[in-house]
Amino acid sequence: MTANAKNGFLLSNGRWQNHYLKDPISVLVVNLMPTKEVTERQFLESFNNLNQDIEFTFLYLATHHFKNISYSAIAKAYASLDDVESSSFDGLIITGAPVEQLNFHQVDYWEEFRTICDWAKRHTKQSLLECWAALGGLYNDYQLNKQQLSQKLFGIYQATSINEHNRLSHNFHAIKIPQSRHSTPVIDPNNLPDDLEVIATNKQIGPLIYYSPSNHRTYITGHPEYESDTLAKEYYRDLKKRLPIQEPHNYFANVEIGKVNYSWQQSSIQIYQNWLNTFTQQKVGTLV
Predict the structure, then answer these.
(1) 122-140 residue pLDDT tens
(2) Where is the site described as Important for acyl-CoA specificity found in this chain (predicted)?
(3) Is 131 an annotated catalytic residue?
(4) Count of domains in the chain?
């Protein structure tokens, strides 16, 4: 089907073409990534492959001090929480953010992030939090803190165990998710908080997808939206800066020529399709 942008830099700069949609699903995206246009395109193109028409509204956090873009530019292209506070959306997505090496309370928009998580319970059917937002959501919702890793978790990781009874894992032969992070939740999968489920896990790095029925919230520790060359760009960027970085796990088919094994695309499509299905096909009050 088709994904449209109601606002955003791609739309305002003429780099995304909208089409006529009838009764699209409305999804609010809190875009915390520094590469705003790239992230907009990643989500739009990913959701273009799904079974429903989608209309994205992109939101910025008014309490954030932007480094790479002027405040007036993003306020013109994006909505703020004040703009949408009285509105309702079918779904909410909060992206990752390059702030995971900070304590949560050191992040300038932490309180606004918490406000949006609380707002989403009343104004959306389901929310989806990715990478840093997933870590922040687990801390906000369950007081599960994070810990720094000794080296960056970087590459493509496949689930070694899947909860096949949950709708979020329907129709999967394999779940592969790009990872690019310096921290991980402090959590015992065998002693989970009440009402928190592990949907998919990798025996090497731990849970990949969590779900909270009471919060109507899915937490994904990686980036399903990443395009084929996203990790390559991060890898060569860090090499150029002489930062400590290892070759991304299970990613390059030939690192010398930069050839990538784009192995997670179908997984990403299915992850997002299953998430949409949780609120477009479920009965009230049920998920499984």
Answers:
(1) 999 999 999 999 999 999 9
(2) 100
(3) yes
(4) 1
